[in-house]
Amino acid sequence: MERLKGNEMINKISKTIEASCSIDNDLFKSYNVKRGLRNEDHTGVIVGLTKVGDVVGYERGENGKLTPIPGRLIYRGISLEDIVKGAQKDDRLGFEEVVYLILSGNLPNKEELKEFSDIMSCTMDLNPKIVMHILDLVGKDIMNYLSRCVLELYTFDENPDDTTPENLIKQSVNLIATFPTIVAYAHNALRHDQGRSLHIRHPQPNLSLAENFLYMMKGHHYTPLDVKILDLALMVHADHGGGNNSTFTVRVTSSTGTDTYSAIAAGIGSLKGPLHGGANLKVIDMMKTIKNNVKDWTSVEEIDNYLRKILNKEAYDHTGLIYGIGHAIYTISDPRTVLLKEMAKDLAIEKGREAEFNFYSLLEERAIYNFMEMKGKNVNKQVCANVDFYSGFVYDMIGLPQEIYTPLFAMARIVGWSAHRIEELNFKQKRIIRPAYKNAAEIRKYTTLEERE
Asked: Are 123 and 227 members of one domain?
């Protein structure tokens, strides 16, 4: 009975939200509030400086006009494309090199890369107590498992609140190396909770981070190309400048002086959101619907008809969005998409899914065309396929389950989070990040309890 009364009160309060939390959109313009920290031309409001990474999708002319250009993603002043192509030319994996570059600011030489890769590989194993804790966890989302385990790592750190450069690097390397192990074990625990067999495979000291993850997830059931494209996926997701939501979240919390584990856990919470790290799951779900409604995967006419229904809010989830198309910064192209798509084609051929890859490629082309035809004038911006358009398809071809797609994102982005946290704490003049909010509520007179109806 008491619970029923409580539910009635909750329902009563919830009905007040529409009035108490609704703000007229015109007020944002009248007060010149940059909602979402976005300018009128959709560019981000500059709120900080960084040397870690840069995301470029346009050039600004002398007259202030923005000109779309092919997208560029830059790590420590070096083009991601050049880093990827350099590793591919040497026929080697590149994620450990990216980690070293982003953390240190410099490319490693052969000896440094070998030593650093060995350190990363040997650090992947978890404290047995944490392993048992993961196996005891009950939940439905691995991102929550990951967040709880990160917070627990605080208790195993001898100097968790030490923010000296040496300790910050130590904590960062430990987190980067153990994220794949936590995710793999959490997935196995989740499967076991669903009544399946429990498989715990310990990371091997002679394997790369990417290959170790596949081994812990799948045993020896993976190919060299699987390893290469997963390594590439980790490389392209490692950082995306300081303005993406999860990295900004880490910087905001770090500016308070809090510990590494609390700041990273906050970043995980941000990345979990469907508008951020969970976006590739929306692409996968949308593609399932499109495949069921487009009978001929080579028909431009049939594809266009269904895409126009989606854009007109007549199909799929009726939001008018084509998931995986469009980006806040990239205009003509997303460099991560370009790199991932190149290798995805080879993987599709290996897996016998070339027709499906061709369908994705044609759909990408037609989605951009139809979006620009129907909505281009309203958004006043060129759009392209973002990395989420192909990443889920790649993971599926590797044989990885959907519940680890967003955790995979976290496994890569922890690199950028760590570097941005270190940079935030290394500012000579420390200052807590505290933006202002304009109060839009009317001033009201207080009434006594007896006067209220």
From this structure: yes
117 and 228 share a domain?
A: yes
Beta-carbon count within 10 A of 395 CB: 20
| CATH code of residue 183 | 1.10.580.10
User: Are residues 372 and 308 located together in one domain of the fold?
Assistant: yes
Among residues of the chain, what percentage have pLDDT more than 70? 98
* One domain for residues 93 and 219: yes
210 half-sphere exposure, CB direction, 13 A CA radius: 27
Give catalytic status of residue 133 as yes or no. no
Q: Are residues 214 and 324 in the same domain?
A: no
The residue to which tokens 């939390």 are assigned: 21
Structural element, H or E, at residue 326 = none
Nearest to 245 by CA among 393, 416, 21, 78: 416
Determine the distance from the C-alpha atom of residue 452 to the mean position of all C-alpha atoms in its chain, rounded to a whole number. 48
Q: How far apart are alpha carbons 244 and 309 in whole angstroms?
A: 31
Q: Could you give the number of structural domains in the chain?
A: 2
Task: Identify the pLDDT of residue 322.
Answer: 96
In a shared domain, residues 221 and 115: yes
Choose the catalytic residue: 231, 334, 388, 420: 388
> What average pLDDT does range 64-82 have in this prediction?
94
Q: Each residue of 128-161: b (16+ CB within 10 Å) or e?
A: eebbebbeebeeeebbebbbbbbebbeeebeeee
Domain of residue 201 covers: 71-275+402-425
And the tokens for 396? 């599926």
Tens digits of residue pLDDT in 344-369? 999 999 999 999 999 999 999 999 99
Q: Where are the alpha helices (DSSP H) in 315-353?
A: 335-351
Would you call 276 a catalytic residue per the annotation? yes
Tokens at residue 60, please? 């600004």
* CATH classification at residue 308: 1.10.230.10
Angstrom distance (rounded) from CA 24 to CA 36: 15
Domain-embedded: residue 51: no
Which residue out of 276, 285, 304, 396 is catalytically annotated? Answer: 276
Residue 279: Cβ-neighbour burial (10 angstroms; 0-12, 13-18, 19+): buried
Catalytic residue selected from 187, 237, 327, 420: 327
C-beta separation of 22 from 306 below 8 A: no
Residue 211 domain-assigned (yes or no): yes
Query: Is residue 13 a part of any domain in this protein?
Result: no
What sign does the CA torsion over 49, 51, 52, 54 have?
positive
Does 196 fall in a domain? yes
Give yes or no: residues 83 and 98 share one domain: yes
Task: Respond yes or no: is residue 388 known to be catalytic.
Answer: yes
> In a 3-state reduction of DSSP, which class is residue 395?
helix
Distances (CA, A) of 130 to 126, 151, 230, 415, 449: 7, 11, 26, 22, 52
The pLDDT tens digits for 219-267 are 999 999 999 999 999 999 999 999 999 999 999 999 999 999 999 999 9
